[in-house]
Amino acid sequence: MTDLSRRAAAILTVDLGAVVANWTRLRDRVAPAECAAVVKADAYGLGVAHVVPALAAAGCATFVVAQFDEALAVRAALGPESPARVLSLGGLPQGTEAAFVANRILPVLNHLGEVAAWQRFARERGERLPAVVHIDTGMNRLGLGPDELDILANELDRLDGIDVQVWMTHLACADEFESPMSAQQLGRFQTALARLPAAEASFANSSGIFHGKAFHFDLARPGCALYGVNPTPHLANPMLGTVRLDARVLQLRSVDAPMTVGYAAAHRVERAARIATIAVGYADGYLRSLSGRGHVYVDGIAAPIVGRISMDLITVDVTGLPEGTVQPGGLVELIGPSRPVDVVAAEAGTIGYEVLTSLGPRYHRVYDRVSSGPDAR
Ligand SMILES: Cc1ncc(COP(=O)(O)O)c(C=O)c1O
């Protein structure tokens, strides 16, 4: 335990071994298709500089981000010699063509204007340039819609000079296994591919992988499942948890009824209670919607968050815990083996993705196994 761990208000432990084990599990599931890793939003909050080298060492050869600057961060994490592919989903911002080529980042071309811009740049350079082309099969968000797909399929010379490495599309309802939408999108994607020149095809996100072989194509693009979010919400989570968040107890006080706790006097103490004040708040990405709804864990026992979550603090009713279990200076578990990300998300009225990508910069980060947690109680 370092001095920093000792004084840190909250400690975020990230288990890179679990991330790698999750990726390996998905890789084996999609084989012989390739398994990429979606590492946008700083690897869903876990830290791209740590996650990318760990996955690359395990054999991951394609990384996916949302924005060009995220792609640069992935390249930096991989090192200059790495042959890994880096895909940027957010298209080709005007005037960035040279930067994509210089940094070996593959733009995902999302409309015919970007296809034309990439072709123009390829002609200027006198070489074929690699890219991914996104076909919209039902998201109506990014990608070539039906009209643009028709034009492209009828005028394939629009691809001259472009080395289309991957045709991709994205599922709208992958985690709703009862929805007919996924099968509809599969049909649309297969029809589109039949009209286009041969290249790799990429369809499945994390949940999509669990729809079966027909969804795997050549390249799967899991994100959330790598980080422990359940890709099969109707079933037990097949993935390992990858993060643990512990926060410091700052004060413990006995409160006699009738009294209130915190901002807006939002919690009324109806009987004598022990309230622990914990050093985490919404400025850390600990979602304010957990006010009066969330729980923390101490030695395997749940204690409810009472009152409002404030910028730096939460208050927890620890009356139900054996006296002495919670001590100022000790730690309580907010996310971890006892409170998986999906459980915290459900309490907050959101999804695991938001809980992870909200993990704040103030946390003292430790890259270690999470099963035991920081030993500082
Ligand atoms: C285009 C695309 N592919 C793959 C993913 C990864 O999805 P998931 O985190 O659900 O696995 C995302 C994430 O939003 C995405 O936008």
From TrEMBL:
Any one Gene Ontology molecular-function term assigned to this protein's record: alanine racemase activity
Keywords, alphabetical: Isomerase, Pyridoxal phosphate
Residue numbers annotated as active site: 40 (proton acceptor), 263 (proton acceptor)
UniProt modified residues of type N6-(pyridoxal phosphate)lysine: 40
Domain Alanine racemase C-terminal: 242-368
A Gene Ontology term for the protein's cellular component: cytosol
Catalytic reaction list: L-alanine = D-alanine
Associated pathway: Amino-acid biosynthesis; D-alanine biosynthesis; D-alanine from L-alanine: step 1/1
CDD domains (UniProt xref): PLPDE_III_AR
Pfam families: Ala_racemase_C, Ala_racemase_N
Cofactor(s) the record lists: pyridoxal 5'-phosphate
The protein's Enzyme Commission number: 5.1.1.1
Signal peptide positions on this chain: none
PROSITE patterns xrefs: ALANINE_RACEMASE (PS00395)
One annotated GO biological process: D-alanine biosynthetic process
Matches recorded under InterPro entries: Ala_racemase (IPR000821), Ala_racemase/Decarboxylase_C (IPR009006), Ala_racemase_C (IPR011079), Ala_racemase_N (IPR001608), Ala_racemase_pyridoxalP-BS (IPR020622), PLP-binding_barrel (IPR029066)
Binding site for substrate: 141, 311
Family: Belongs to the alanine racemase family.
Reported function: Catalyzes the interconversion of L-alanine and D-alanine. May also act on other amino acids.
Identification of the protein by name: Alanine racemase
Organism from which the protein derives: Azospirillum doebereinerae
